[in-house]
Amino acid sequence: MLGLKLATDPRWVNIVESNIEEILTDHAWCEQKAASNAISIVTYNSELEELVTEMLEIAREELEHFQMVHNIIKQRGLTLGRERKDHYVNELFKFMKKDGSRRDALCDRLLFSAMIEARSCERFKVLSENIQDQDLAKFYRDLMISEAGHYTTFLGFARKYQDNIDIDKRWKDWIEYEGSIITNYGKNETVHG
């Protein structure tokens, strides 16, 4: 369904399990950034009522996920660490087109967002199927479903609002680009790392 070029090696979970506090902290901040991204899309596209409604719903869900991860951190006697840079997301950001119309920029921002959600969904699936901690396995299985919904929402809106862009071709370009950079990741106990 996701069409990603490279699957995450399940052995990545061994790295994650060596530092649960780190993956949870990173995950919490990923959820906060996802909520901020949805709000940013609203800010720049407030005239698109349907988009605003859906982005506000996604922002709410992402903040709920942030709270859920924070609750797990507290329940385990761990500490929410400082926000970290997400090098994977920063590399994806470089691929966004900087020219064209406002509508073109919106569509590329939606594809950028769909790409992040697709990889997060895939990583949560790998976690849910391979992590030894059964509570976290269930947690990540549930979040995987939510991320898949966000992925399809972003992709659907990119198709809806496209103007001069062949969205299917541009999405293939995104898939190819992501496939070229993901080979540098999967070596750290972070969601995208």
UniProtKB/TrEMBL annotation:
<dbReference type="GO" id="GO:0006400">
    <property type="term" value="P:tRNA modification"/>
</dbReference>
<protein>
    <submittedName>
        <fullName>tRNA-(Ms[2]io[6]A)-hydroxylase</fullName>
    </submittedName>
</protein>
<dbReference type="Pfam" id="PF06175">
    <property type="entry name" value="MiaE"/>
</dbReference>
<dbReference type="GO" id="GO:0045301">
    <property type="term" value="F:tRNA 2-(methylsulfanyl)-N(6)-isopentenyladenosine(37) hydroxylase activity"/>
</dbReference>
<dbReference type="InterPro" id="IPR009078">
    <property type="entry name" value="Ferritin-like_SF"/>
</dbReference>
<dbReference type="InterPro" id="IPR012347">
    <property type="entry name" value="Ferritin-like"/>
</dbReference>
<dbReference type="InterPro" id="IPR010386">
    <property type="entry name" value="tRNA-Hydrxlase_MiaE"/>
</dbReference>
